[in-house]
Design a protein that fits this description.
148 residues; mainly alpha
Amino acid sequence: MRRLIPYAGAAAAVAITTALIDFVVGRAQIANISMLYLVAVLVVAVAFGRAAAIVASVLAFVTFDWFFVPPTHQLVVADAQELFSLALFLITAVVTGTLAARERARAQEAEHREHDAKVLYEAAFLMAEPLATSRRAPACARPAVSSG
């Protein structure tokens, strides 16, 4: 079940973006409104990784074609220019999603390395402490010489 959470997040991000686009399209004409899906893909990539970002990209591509590209409610594109735009969108979404996911992985790797460095530092500090104590021990163990 836990494995499905990233994909459910991808579907939710696309659904929310679709609702936002539907709300805006009825009130204003905005060129390239499909680029809002790129924001959703980037959010999914950062939150869940590459696979979920690719799923979000494909879902965004199909959803935008289904709801907003004439003829609507068909997976058919009447205009060749619109088909080119959709293909370009899909490529851009996959590439940006992959790059964002890669940066997320690098950030996680840096956090792990930082944690490892802290653990090694603490271990070295603890290992050095008994050495300092053992150097002092012989001096403390010598009997006191009385001068008198």
